[in-house]
């Protein structure tokens, strides 16, 4: 799931990955959580990684997954997210 934005140094990439891991650890196992992060942290990847984790942890026989809300511009979800899922090799259907 690691990939760097164009021009990102290995140090910047490592810091970004560490911050994403920290944020995901904070919101894990909470019913409700909100996170405000600045530009360039990888909010799309952060959201996709969290959804992949939730889906991976769900029971294989569960017919449904708990609904969730994403507040984002429509173009981000319809255009960018499927590309990001493929780019980072996540197992999500978008």
How would you characterize this protein structure?
- The structure is a single chain.
- The protein is an all-alpha fold and 94 residues long.
- The protein has one domain (10-87).
- The protein has three helices and no strands.
- It has helices at residues 10-27, 43-57, 74-87.
- Helix 1 crosses helix 2.
- It is globular.
- The two termini are 17 Å apart.
> Which structural class matches the secondary elements?
mainly alpha
Mean pLDDT figure: 75
Rg is 14 Å
Total domain count: 1
**How can the largest sheet be summarized?**
none
Q: What general outline do the C-alpha atoms trace?
A: globular
What's the end-to-end separation, in Å? 17 Å
Q: Percent range for helical residues?
A: 40-55%
Helix count, DSSP H or I runs of 4 or more residues = 3
**Element order, helices and strands?**
HHH
Strand content: under 5%
């Amino acid at each position: 799931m690691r990939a760097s934005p164009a021009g990102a140094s290995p140090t910047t990439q490592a810091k970004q990955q560490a911050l994403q891991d920290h944020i995901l650890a904070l919101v894990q196992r909470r019913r409700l959580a909100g996170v405000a992060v600045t530009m360039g942290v990888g909010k799309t990847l952060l959201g996709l990684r969290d959804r992949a984790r939730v889906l991976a942890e769900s029971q294989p026989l569960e017919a449904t997954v708990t609904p969730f809300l994403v507040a984002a511009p429509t173009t981000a979800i319809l255009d960018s997210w499927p590309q990001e899922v493929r780019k980072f090799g996540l197992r999500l259907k978008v």
